[in-house]
Write a structure and sequence with these properties.
Length: about 400
């Protein structure tokens, strides 16, 4: 099987563009132009120059010696937490802002959950001098206050989403409404591998720089390009798509996706889409989706603001259904303990999203000689208040 997107915008049975007629021109303009524009030498030069001089790429591939000794295997961390703005999100926003400028757009909108994508979007809008509006759920605005302040300081307007669960799903709904009302001058920078085609593929391509670097770095460190496993947390799944990208069609590399089980998979407070989801349509894409028997979207829950999405991107839905990806669900408690453990073993405070990926070693055993690369997708600064409350620090 080929696990990349096909010409009609599908990963297996998942993907496509299920959109209202009023959005068709916007999405079609992107679909017709994104591959041509991103393959131009001038675009590639601008993109890679900014990744190098502005974002600080390549990010290190760090051998976590004490962590590895504890679990008797070889664990490398891809340090996306060291990117400018503190997470992998900026790889995508740099790419999309360059694309938007070439399409003549003057106004940028975005949605955000944990706030990292909002910060990354506000950052590139400031860099390029474009108007920026970020939609964010009211609940997330409270629990990610430092990121809200950063967005405002960067000149963005932060608009609260007050409907539904007032989290990421609802922020996305508001952003889509905005785009329908401003079809000509506005580009919507989606922050994950979700939404109508071409977004899942476009975002995955911009994030694929992560696995591109891993191949080179691992060759230097282990004399091999391919690890035994690549591991990432999955909400919508852009950090996961980035580290999986160059390994998708290499079956000798295991793909492990880690979802948020919240307070337990079957407690009603979870975001473990692979277990709880079934095929449905959300935000313009056919994918696995948590829903009631009559098709109403159920509210997801995770202690991590970046993982409480009721679906997964179509790439990940296909990885799960086809058996190419191994999906593991991690509870809030397991993730928080793993975050504390990495902090005290390696001196690295991870984002709670990334802590989910780190938590698998308690359950999932690996061989001593196996090489596991974990995408440390973000740093824990934004989550300090959650860590403080949880551990009574």
């Amino acid at each position: 099987m080929n696990y990349n997107v096909d010409p009609s915008g599908y990963y297996g049975q998942y993907g496509g563009a299920f959109i209202p007629e009023m959005l068709y021109p916007n999405v079609e303009e992107l679909r017709q132009n994104y591959l041509q524009i991103t393959s131009e030498e001038s675009f590639k030069n601008d993109f890679h120059q900014l990744l190098k001089d502005y974002v600080g790429r390549p990010t290190p591939l760090y051998f976590a010696k004490r962590f590895s000794e504890k679990y008797n295997t070889k664990v490398y961390l891809k340090r996306e937490d060291l990117c400018h703005t503190g997470a992998h999100k900026v790889n995508n926003t740099i790419g999309q802002i360059l694309l938007a400028k070439r399409l003549g757009k003057t106004r940028i909108i975005a949605e955000t959950g944990a706030g990292q994508h909002g910060v990354a979007t506000a950052t590139v809008c400031a860099l390029m001098g474009l108007e920026c509006i970020v939609y964010m759920g009211e609940v997330d605005i409270k629990r990610q206050a430092p990121n809200v302040a950063r967005m405002k300081m960067l000149g963005a307007k932060v608009v609260p989403a007050k409907s539904g669960s007032r989290t990421l799903k609802d922020a996305t709904n508001e952003a889509i409404r905005d785009w329908i009302n401003h079809p000509v001058d506005t580009h919507y920078i989606i922050g994950s591998v979700v939404g109508p085609h071409p977004y899942p593929d476009m975002v995955a391509r911009f994030q694929s720089v992560i696995s591109e670097e891993v191949k080179k770095q691992l060759l230097e460190k282990e004399q091999r390009e391919n690890p035994d496993y690549v591991v990432a947390c999955v909400g919508g799944g852009s950090n996961a798509a980035g580290i999986y990208y160059h390994y998708l069609n290499q079956p000798e590399v295991g793909i492990i996706a880690v979802e948020a089980a919240g307070k337990g998979i079957y407690t009603g407070e979870s975001a473990a889409t692979s277990v709880l989801g079934r095929t449905g349509i959300i935000h313009g894409s056919k994918t696995l989706l948590m829903q009631t028997p009559d098709g109403q979207i159920t509210e997801p829950y995770s202690i991590s603001a970046g993982l409480d999405y009721p679906g997964v991107g179509p790439m990940h839905a296909n990885l799960y259904t086809s058996g190419r990806g191994e999906f593991i669900s991690i509870t809030d408690d397991e993730a928080m303990q793993a975050g504390l453990e990495l902090s005290q073993l390696e001196g690295i405070i991870p984002a709670i999203e990334s802590s989910h990926a780190l938590a698998i070693f308690k359950e999932r055993k690996f061989q001593e000689k196996e090489v596991i690369v974990i995408n440390l997708s973000g740093r824990g600064d934004k989550d300090l208040n959650t860590y403080i409350d949880y551990f009574n620090l």
